[in-house]
Design a protein that fits this description.
- With 85 residues, this protein is an alpha+beta fold.
- The protein has one domain.
- It has 2 helices and 4 strands.
- It has a 4-stranded antiparallel β-sheet.
- The protein starts with 7 loop residues before the first strand and ends in a 7-residue tail after the last helix.
Length: 85
Amino acid sequence: MKTRLEPIVVKRGRSLVRIYPRKKGGRVYFQVADYSSGKRKFVGFVDPRQAKLHAELIATKPVTSDRDVQQRRFTARRRPVIRFE
């Protein structure tokens, strides 16, 4: 059975960013999960200090209202179209 390495959690206020250590080819690299754009993106680093620095940058970034805009678009698509002819 494979043993998974525990994710490193960086917290700043109410923000939480996870850093996933991964083994590949006998080396360990770190993937930072970035949800700031509304979708999950992984950013890879070889150095854990750089990964933590990037995670802190993401966690301290002010939250924009992009999600509100995306949710409005989603609800706008779900509404039935009523046409008066």
